[in-house]
Amino acid sequence: MNFLRGRSITFMNARVVGPDGALARSLRIDGSRIAALDELEAAGQVVDLENAFVFPGLINPHDHLELNHFPRLKWRPHYESAREWIADFQPRFTADPVVAAGLSHRLSDRLLIGGLKNLLSGVTTVCHHNPMYRELGRRFPVRIVERFGFSHSLHIDGPKVRDSFLRTRSAHPWIIHAAEGVDEEATGEVGRLLRLGCLGSNTLLVHGVGLTPADREHVLSRGAGLIWCPGSNRFLFGRTADVSEFARRGRLAIGTDSRLSGERDLLRELKVAREMATLEQRALVRAVTCDAATLLRLPTLGRLQARSPADILVLRSHLECPFEALVAADRSDVALTMVGGQPRVGEPTMAAAFDAVGIRTVRACLDGRPRILDSRIATRLARSGLQEPGFTLDGSKPLMVSLSNDEHTALRSSTRSARTDREETG
Ligand SMILES: [Zn+2]
Known about the structure:
Elements lengths: L7 E5 L2 E4 L2 E4 L2 E4 L2 E5 L7 E4 L4 E4 L1 E6 L18 H8 L2 H4 L1 H7 L3 H14 L2 E6 L14 E2 L4 E5 H4 L2 H8 L6 E5 L5 H4 L1 H7 L7 E5 L5 H9 L3 E4 L1 H8 L6 H5 L3 E3 L11 H11 L4 H6 L3 H6 L16 E4 L6 H7 L5 E6 L2 E5 L4 H6 L4 E6 L2 E6 H9 L7 E3 L11 H12 L10
Parallel strand pairs: 1-6, 2-7, 8-9, 9-10, 11-12, 12-13, 13-14, 14-15
Antiparallel strand pairs: 1-4, 2-3, 4-5, 7-16, 16-17, 17-18, 18-20, 19-20, 19-21
Zinc ion binds next to loops.
């Protein structure tokens, strides 16, 4: 047990950002929680942020964490629906060397890359749209949303969708890929969900590319929301959803999906979002912070406020507007990612924050910039058979893992179990 865990850290000379802009110049953390904003007296370890922005840790409302070590894959210029894309995978699980090699790695290693992808881009909470594998427990690099129900989609789960919705408590979100495409089946999915009684105030549709104006009104009038993954939509379909009304009503969250179809990370998705929709930068930031938290029913996350978990993103930028700065940012601009008061990865200038809570670090390099990383994450990464592109541990050598046929088969079936409904965990 770390006896220093209860120590305080005060970030000074900070530009702390709220949903409407500048919030404070300092922020103090006690243990795992935010203690105070804008105090006159610093307490505990003082870290001078030299005018960096402090945002709430970003919330990624949609990912499949075990699929982020793959490259983007498709076999046609554009698809009409996700069903077509998924069908293109079926013969390739064993026949395509890229797909087969990707599936040959240990699940724990694959999930770790998914965690690292998010952590490096300042994401501190991920909603993982697949079973709650035991590897996603307390030692995982980012916070994982636990209290929600989900179904894959109507085209994969069929009648089981309704059971999944009914099993999910109304206080928890229920999430489903829907209208992921532009063919007749995809564009009819909101109508089917309505007829099945699955469009409630806790329903979150992922994608919504094929939503009609009437569908959008049905979804919004029921208080449901949209999780938008613009990079994936552009890659697969060459178009995306009309999200402006969802954003205006605070019912939009932006997610990455996995790297099989999505951008490298959530910061890259923000750039695609800016290109594909005429939304204010502030609305884009809300969709990865406070509005994402509201849709996922996470009232203590997505805003920097006293007593909330200390999930923090420190961002270097020369820009004045915090929203413009975040939307323009690359992961190499993220100076620190902290989850529940625990610094995980950051610039070497943040070493005092790691020291304050007794976290040992190792040196690393991210896209040519020096970084320090929690040594426990580094150890697991070094032992894994996978590497995160652009990220190296000092002195590390790539290690390859070769698995037996049995393990290979088990991993393939674990991917197929993506269709399984998650039982309520809360
Ligand atoms: Zn997905």
